Amino acid sequence: MMDEKKMDFLRDTNLALARMRAKFDERDEQVIYEKGIAKGKTIGKEKGILEGKLEGQKMLVKLVLRQRMALNEREEKQIDELDEEKLLDLIQSLDAIHTPEDFQRQIHDKANQKVQMKQTVLNR
Fold first, then answer.
1. Is the pLDDT of residue 9 over 60?
2. What's the pTM?
């Protein structure tokens, strides 16, 4: 009987911890989002609204990726060099990026897509 109570207690504790982790993860994402928006507004005032929005999105992508992996200087530069279209494509595939290899694969795919599109247009 005592072992059953211990198991129930451990199961309840485990569920409570999982709920707390989920809440903290939610809050972390909200804080990252708010920081990205604030940074974008600041840059927007300095450089212009559209450019500021793009810079804010880049900052947000970097913050999200830094939570999942360590970004090196080269990877940050790759993000900085993305145009609006490629950045939006990368944002849509953020869920698939958890390692530097995933990041490089996504960047490589985005670059190849543009080259393939140019080839298709030229061949017509």
1. yes
2. 0.49
